[in-house]
Amino acid sequence: MPSKSAVAAAKAKRAAKPAPVPAATEPTSDLEGGSASDTGSAEGSGESDLEDDNEQADGSDDDGEDDDAQEDGDSSVAGSENQDSEEAAEADDNGDASEGEGEGDKDEDEDEDGAEDGSDEDDGGDAEDDEPAAKKTFRELGVHSQLCEACEKMGFKYATPIQSKAIPEALTGRDVIGLAQTGSGKTAAFSIPILQALWDNPKPLFACVLAPTRELAYQITQQIEALGSTIGARCATIVGGMDMMSQAIALSKRPHVVVATPGRLQDHLENTKGFSLRNLQYLVMDEADRLLDMDFGPVIDKLLQAIPRERRTMLFSATMTTKVAKLQRASLKNPVRVEVDTKYTTVSTLKQYYLFMPFAHKDTYLVHLANEQAGQSVIVFTRTVHDAQRLSILLRLLGFPAIPLHGQLSQSARLGALSKFKSGGRSILIATDVASRGLDIPAVDLVVNYDIPTHSKDYIHRVGRTARAGRSGRSVTLVTQYDVELLQRIEAVTGEKMQEFPGGSDKEAVMLLSERVSEAQRAAVRELKEKGLGGNRAAGKKKRRRGETDDDAMDRDDDEVQAGMPRGGGGGRGRGGGRGGRGGGRGGSKRGRR
């Protein structure tokens, strides 16, 4: 067990490399809309990455986007630096390298939470980028009174900056590329123009919104239905992990808007009789950078071929990466580009702290922190499914209302966990990065990084779950003697030096909990083994030797496929039983992908 001197040495090492002075940032606006979506035009297939529905061999609905969920969670600093350097090089090629000072962590792939990119594309025009004037109401933007009424019911008095720029352009029929931070109201920025066009020309299957994750798709549906409540807009949510037949029935009712993950939507286009998007008027791609990061590129190419060329397309992203630029050129016609706060940073209303501790007592410090924040709404992020499940059991055994959220849970369990957390039924959510992107969970008081992300962009996504839409929020990163360099790199990229968390340095109070925590740790491990939850590490190694998939090593959305693996390819284990054959991975059924 590391000595106290090791932690002291780590502190000294951190103090020796101060982070740069933070740049001033603009607070986000009041609107709590989710991320906005983007669209693509069928003018040719964009050169994107691979993606689609990937059913895990064990039959669980592994929908999480937790790309970092390694089973042993031992991603090295050196490895992350290499990846960050590659990402920075790609961003440089596209003219989008961020202004952050991080060692190559100027990620082109910064997702919705705060990757802000100020470069201009030659492919499309730019909207006026002057300093924002006085706040505008939706009526001043040209929105119909029926939709203004819905906005008022939702508490949206004024348009946010991204809405003020994007909505007028979209209402004129222009294709739009929108770049903005998380919590900036991007969902309403693309939903309102679609609903206004639907009011003027009501048709079934009028618009399609593509989202990278299931939870984000449900969130977008909820907001579109709320905004369209005064005009009777109907939506269908089409995602993996749910029954294909019930989704086919929903599509047969001809909804106005389809919100979908790309893989499952492609399944229905291929296999659901009578369903097509030949008359589609609007296509939106939400979190386009994330869609392409998750290897949805080939599926998006196919979708673009299945929809009309003459349509309106909106594409929303956190950054203009090389991949997004290629997709833009392939799918949008003479787009106008609007961007707000696209700098690679966190919001100014977020207070960021660290808490030093010996690695051996990490769980004890987490329990102490949970005890100090009793009654607060807290999200704890872990790197692995195993830790997410283990910590949720540990905290529950100690009397804390904790609930897990990760890719090994069924879709209904994941939605249930989110619902309980949002409603206040559970005040602590233990999650992998499946919850770090795109989700608008209101009133999160504190975000805890149990594991420091190996990539700074993931840190920004995580802490972006709090301090949303102009609210204040706090984040605490647990730092052991092995994590100092990662902490310094995050500080360099965000431009903000974290402060030590107040009240966390009372080591005597923390260690009083040590015995109880140790007992709960042993009980949690026993429960994991008995129920087979969260992945058994030894069993996982055996699975890999047999060539099977270990879900603890890949907590990914089942709307994805492995690179190079054909749809419906052979040799896998199908859900419906049997090995090999043409239906491998689908259980021998065209409808086997869930």
From TrEMBL:
Residues 361-509 form the Helicase C-terminal domain. Residues 136-164 form the DEAD-box RNA helicase Q domain. Keywords: ATP-binding, Helicase, Hydrolase, Nucleotide-binding, Nucleus, Ribosome biogenesis, RNA-binding. Its main location: nucleus. GO terms for molecular function: ATP binding; hydrolase activity; RNA binding; RNA helicase activity. Residues 566-587 have a biased composition (Gly residues). Pfam families: DEAD, Helicase_C. GO terms for biological process: gene expression; ribosome biogenesis. Coiled coil: none annotated. InterPro entries: DDX47/Rrp3_DEADc (IPR044765), DEAD/DEAH_box_helicase_dom (IPR011545), DEAD_box_RNA_helicase (IPR050079), Helicase_ATP-bd (IPR014001), Helicase_C-like (IPR001650), P-loop_NTPase (IPR027417), RNA-helicase_DEAD-box_CS (IPR000629), RNA_helicase_DEAD_Q_motif (IPR014014). Residues 167-338 form the Helicase ATP-binding domain. This is ATP-dependent rRNA helicase RRP3. It is found in: Nucleus.
